[in-house]
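Renewal narrative, Specific Aim 1. Our central claim is that a sequence can be written position by position from structural information alone. The example that follows is taken directly from our test logs and has not been curated for this report. It begins with the structure tokens describing the chain, in the order in which they were read.
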């Protein structure tokens, strides 16, 4: 067993300098605290110089979010290549899943980062700026695809904000639970809520379609009115209008 383990270690690629800096930083953040850790401490533990740190990270805050820049690029490319005849709402929901995949790829790191950002106000502010950039990318796509709509700009901002809110609800619930549970299913439910609210077409995660009776969505209300035979039509119309107006 020892020889097999040694063989596995031999085939495992050595961590890159960037990975070493991230690992060293989080070890110190967890042991000493974020504010008490300096960049000099990080590079000393990683065994590199200060210039190497700044080659990868502009600041100490950026080492806490090392994967967001790459994810933002991936999201932008995904939206740029999205089919022109596709549903923009479903497209931005699928783009948001790229962020989930990034977090789910390393649950331990993601949970540690979440807890750290809850403790350090400066990191929370930095995280909000990152989320804002995601939201801008989603809104820009919706704005471009909805250019022909009178409400295109307003709709783009509202839908983008809804996607981010739904995504964050599912993600943070999972992180607060220590990375336990089916986060994919939770995200399906959260983003499906957005699709049902804003999409103009059916989707794979709960939008449109014939989920209810005769094609109605399950969250739509149905009004049933009983009238005696021979009731004047004007009275039936009045009662229907009253029922709909009060629902």
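The sequence written for that structure reads:
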């Amino acid at each position: 067993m020892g020889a097999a383990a040694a063989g596995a270690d031999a085939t495992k690629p050595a961590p890159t300098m960037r990975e070493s800096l991230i690992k060293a930083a989080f070890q110190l953040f967890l042991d000493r605290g974020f504010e008490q850790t300096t960049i000099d401490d990080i590079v000393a533990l990683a065994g590199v110089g200060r210039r190497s740190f700044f080659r990868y990270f502009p600041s100490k805050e950026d080492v806490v979010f090392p994967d967001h820049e790459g994810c933002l690029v991936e999201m932008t490319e995904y939206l740029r290549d999205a089919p022109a005849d596709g549903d923009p709402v479903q497209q931005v929901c699928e783009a948001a899943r790229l962020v989930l995949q990034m977090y789910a790829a390393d649950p331990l790191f993601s949970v540690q980062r979440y807890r750290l950002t809850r403790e350090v106000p400066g990191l929370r502010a930095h995280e909000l700026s990152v989320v804002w950039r995601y939201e801008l990318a989603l809104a820009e796509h919706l704005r471009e695809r909805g250019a022909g709509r009178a409400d295109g700009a307003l709709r783009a901002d509202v839908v983008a904000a809804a996607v981010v809110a739904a995504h964050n609800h599912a993600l943070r619930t999972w992180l607060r639970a220590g990375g336990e549970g089916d986060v994919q299913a939770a995200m399906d439910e959260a983003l499906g809520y957005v699709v049902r609210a804003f999409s103009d077409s059916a989707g794979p995660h709960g939008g449109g379609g014939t989920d209810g009776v005769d094609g109605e969505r399950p969250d739509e209300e149905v009004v049933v009115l009983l009238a005696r035979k021979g009731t004047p039509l004007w009275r039936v119309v009045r009662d229907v209008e009253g029922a709909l107006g009060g629902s």
